[in-house]
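Entry for S-adenosylmethionine complex. Fields follow.
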Amino acid sequence: MFELRLLCPEERVEAVGDALEALDALSVSVEDADAQTPAEQALFGEPGMPPPKEGWQRSLVVALFTEEAQAREAAQLLQPQDFFQGCKLLGIQAVPDQDWVRLTQSQFEPVEITPTFWIVPSWHEPPAGARQVIRLDPGLAFGTGTHPTTRMCLRWIARHAPAGQRVLDYGCGSGILAIGAAKHGAAQVDAVDIDEAAVRSTEANAQANGVQLTAGLPERAKGRYDSVLANILATPLKVLAPLLASHVAPGGALVLAGILARQAQELKDAYEPYCQLDVSDEEDGWILMTAKL
Ligand SMILES: C[S@@+](CC[C@H](N)C(=O)[O-])C[C@H]1O[C@@H](n2cnc3c(N)ncnc32)[C@H](O)[C@@H]1O
């Protein structure tokens, strides 16, 4: 692979990027040409505010090509164009071969939920002492155990070991909570999501983990469950309050995540007609709220 490196003023970046893509660049990346210098510019605003400006004053534009000849031809075609005015060709250089798969994989390590309960990517050996292991690779659906909300739900499952129970994972994503419950002995597990891709991902992950569960769209959730887990977000959790509460069997547990610490009271209020929610775990500003019905 060969990369063509260009320096472009802010107003030229879009046209040059589009032209490079039209010239069959495999990828085009843009970064602040003044990064790591006193002239570096931040392009993010205060929370809730727009960014101070759309682009950097000077951008380093890097286009990747399979062949050196393609990179040279792109440079020759770009230089006489009107929209190239003010831009500068920095050079063409070979990109050393990398094992990209290995590099990506090396960023995903096994995740410890408890000393005996781990989430382990397929390319790793489970750590010694792991008794319940969820095999899961980063994929399209949310839930690979790297987010605090998922970890808190899994910790709850490990602590409350739902052996023999009927469990509902509402908003299953990758199916990680449903699989975790099955690995802890749940007798029947239903996993539902509004996203069809999540349903397919859950089915595939359940099979890869050798566990039985039923995955489907939300209407697949039927009747009452001993434990209902929902890691969504505060707003949908509030809307879903009557529905989720109606799926919990008398004496059963409701476990909600995806809630920021400052949203605790709103959630308590929304569920007050059905149960008393309490904060039972906290990690990185996220809370786990649970109730017995
Ligand atoms: C934050 S992910 C959680 C995934 C996984 N359960 C976990 O704990 O990592 C939330 C999931 O809820 C799904 N979702 C969002 N709103 C929903 C709704 N109203 N009903 C069912 N699923 C919903 C999303 O498609 C997404 O897969």
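NOTE: The CA atoms of residues 53 and 289 lie 40 Å apart.
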